[in-house]
Amino acid sequence: MANSYLVEPDVNFVRQLKTMGGETLKKCYQCATCSVVCPISPDERPFPRKEMIAAQWGLKDKLVGNMDVWLCHHCNDCSTYCPRGARPGDLLNAVRAYSIQEYAWPKWLARIVPDPRFWWLLLAIPMAIFVMILGPAGYLKIPAGEIEFAKFFPTLLIDLIFVPLATFWVPLVFGIGIYRFMTDLHKNAVAEGKAKRKDLNIPDFLKSLACALPAILAHSKFDECSSNKDRYISHLLVFFSFLGLFVVTNCFFVALYILQLPGPYSMGNPVKILANISAVALLVGVILMIYNRLQDKGDNIGKGSYFDWSLIILVLGLVVTGILSEVTRIAHAPILAYPIYFMHLVFVFCLFAYLPFSKLAHLVYRTLAMAYSRYSEREPCE
Amino acid sequence: MEKKIGVYICEGCGIGEAIDKDRVVKNGVPKKIEICRNHPIMCSTEGIELIKKDIADEGVNTVVIAACSQRVLYDVFDFGPVIVKRANLREGVVWSHKPQEDRIGGEEGAPQVDQLIQEMAEDYVRMGIAEAEKMLPPEPYLEETFDKKIVVMGGGVAGLSAALDTAKAGYETLVVEKQAKIGGFATKMRKQTPSSYPYEELQPPVIDQIIKEAEAHPKIEIRTGTEIARIAGSPALFDITFKAAGTKSAWDVMSAEEEAALLEKMAEEGEEAAAKGAEPTPDSPATILVKNPDAERFGAVILATGWKPWEPRKEDEPAPEAEGEEAKEAEAEEEPKEPEPTFEHLGLGTLPDVVTNVAFEEMAANGKILKPSSGKPAASVAFIQCGGQGTDEDFPYASAVTSMVALKQAKYVREDNPDGKAYIFYQHMRTPGQNEYFYKSVQQDDGIFLTKGEVVSVSGNGDGSLVLEAKDTLLGENIKLSADMVVLGTGMVPITRDEPVLNFAYRQGPAFRDLDLFDGYPDSNFICFPYETRRTGIYAAGCARRAMSIQESIEDASGAALKAIQCIESVYRGVAVHPRSGDMTFPDFFFQRCTQCKRCTEECPFGALDDDEKGTPLPNPTRCRRCGTCMGACPERIVGFADYSIDSIGSAVKAIGVPEDDDENLRVLVLACENDAYPAFDMAGLNRLSYSPLVRIIPVRCLGSVNVVWIKDALSKGIDGILTIGCKFGDDYQCHFAKGSELLDVRMDKIGEALKSLALEKERVQQVQVAIDEYEKIPGIIGEFVETIQGVGPNPFKGF
Asked: What CATH fold (topology level) applies to the domain A117-375?
């Protein structure tokens, strides 16, 4: 028989998916209700029915590098309507978690980030780095007088740590991941007949990326969900507040090094206003996300794995310490303000350093998959 | 017996309003009837007392009750030995006919009623009285030599369970097993599918416990290595000759054809051959006419001979249902059957590592599963449930059991090897009822992979493993897969398909009849009459009836055991066992007029009649199911029952009033089977569906009992058309007596020719098939037929 696909089930892959939030995957009996009710799946070769059988059969090559896994926005309409409680939406979430590890480098870090046994280690790494840098330089003491964080942790030292992290580490790790991801994505799409284009042309791909961006910014896919509509607003808040904080960070970087204007800045400063609004929005967004996950949707739908919760808790810690740093600073409570600020920096470090390994990596992979689906004409470019 | 008839007309349920009861008495009740009463509610205590008083004081011994249908209140209108005949005025007349303005009339001062409805009521009363006059009180058939012992054929799960059931109920039971050991296939299994909540885990087979219990039971005798040479006689009078399994016996039964040829030869050659027949030897066994004085007597038989694994038939092997001489004849007569598939494309018979599920089970029971080719452990096994080749049909005789076995054996693979892989390719995953829980639990196993799909080929991979290619799978494309072993989900063939098993010394031959209709299963009708076979007193259980799990077989055995007990106890009371449970009548033959045409013997759907070398029927009343097919078949009209005879129904037909000078007011006789068609008429009445008042309906036991003479009587009486309505026949027959409606259909063809010779139109006599739930079709069926008759015109014999 020509063009046969050689099936090589991997029992360990099944076991791993089960530990990452897909524990119900074997319940599926292939009725395809999920593919029918999915509001965002394409009409041709819809997901997640085919992903369910691939998962049951342990067919890693059909799931890791499958763009459809990333087109899913985890609405969980499929899980709500699944007659067997197989939770396809949560399974795809588990596959995404697995894929992030698969494409991340170095592997040891990829393995400990999603491992609940090592959460302390992840926090210990930045603490150790900070202590090793600040200790010999004579800092790490609560300074007297007006609270000024630069007295405790000089901005230059922060940037010595964080600028390489953001400009070297993250792009390096992601660069490797993106290359491997895109290669697999294209190979899988061509093999499964999902791609109309058989070549991979970078300028055209960038055009598709540009075309996908409005949909990403508008959260239009989230808006199509019906069972889990609340996530549209919470994700929107978190997304744009991070965007706001990204703008703020860049403004202050320019202010400090180019305009030579060190902080703290006045509360009336428009950038400061944007910072504060973003912080509050992030807090609200994260609380909404937590509230939403704790809702009982039956069958344990969307309750999330450690992989989800670790990111949410990190962001919550980040925003809470951020806001409290500012509040305690204004309240002149140095005993509280400096340690909280220290923790805030630890969280920021974690967010950046582990970005390509954590759930936050979907920022890159989903964007690429959405761009590729337009490039391959699986989805139209509107 | 001096007949004293009392007629009782009920006025309740709308009868009193729709008809003029005085005219019914005047026109419907012959003058000679002295006792004729009416009551507003005949079924009331007062009404019943009225009848009872006449029985006690006036010596009434035959009661005609003109009220509701015979199918209701039969327990209320039960007066012991008194003959009761019901004239159906309620469902049959007033509920099923709307009075029409233009037909209203009546004498001055008398109630004004619909004339046609009135005539109908008068006719039914007159017909009822005429029939009652010819009915006799039934006397039970009883013999002193009845035996209550039960024999169970087959010592597997079903047989032993049935034996335990009958033994516990107090019946001496003999279990006969062909193999050297009892227990059947269940003793060769590693594990069985779950039988109790939560129905998720495999369990050790329960057969050991059943064997122990059966062996210890004082009322159970077990004979292994034994089979039946012949079974003669009838329920409670079965004379069974046993023999060592696989041997020839002087009491073996010849095929019906061989037997007939021998009898013919005996008739020609005279005493020499007859003497030979009387001294049977294993090489020249006895005819069925010879009785074995050493045979053992039994009451009933439970057939639990189970199944054998389906195997592809070898090319040089003849089809098993016909052997030797028969095969040649069959080949000449029948169209060649399509050859059974051999599934060579799946490697069956050519690749050593491709086995059937039965072989795999035996391997699993012996320990770790090893590849037959190399003796190395089989780490990955593919289970194929469908033979493919363009169809989605499962393997022959596959069933829910086959699906469950595939799931079970997949579990074995996982038990033997924590990293083992089991693949199941199915077209149908049949796990009905609680079995679904087992399916769900197996599905949870990380190493069990299920998909719908067709395996196209299995071939050697060169490295000792096998490679499967499959299409139309749920994985969405053609796939290739490597496995250490392949197991084919082949089915379970009932032993009765290929072997007579019981070897009946019956005129109709040693095996069950019409096995082709049921793929070799001996059931007479799986849906309507479970456990009953086409031979009264023989009840099938377990995999002889359909493929079953162990648990199902245990439950099924109880059903057959109860049926066997019911049969014996019914015979002891002199009544029929089924489907006319409790019927005390049996066919009576007036042998002086018998022409030895053998029609009754041949047509009896249950082989109740044997015949001697001359062809005179030898009745076996306890084999009989009282359908009356013999009565319908007999051209000499010598067969009848006490309360149902050629004369009783014929008299009712002749009692129908036929208006002679009215071209519009025609008469149509309907002979309706009382199992499905007559209830359908009642239900039509109950639902107030109106049909033509020109019909007169007579319920018959079965259309098979309809004798052509009734039709001739009706036509010569001047009745314009005759419609017989009975059950569906053919492959999916619904006839309670298996063949009745079909047999009448054959007779009807001949009636058509007779009509032609009388210059009568063929359309005047027709047959219609109706199911019990098709009552809404009744007005249409009647309307259409009446219209046909009106088109043909009045019967020219009217008035002769």
From this structure: Fumarate Reductase Cytochrome B subunit (1.20.950)
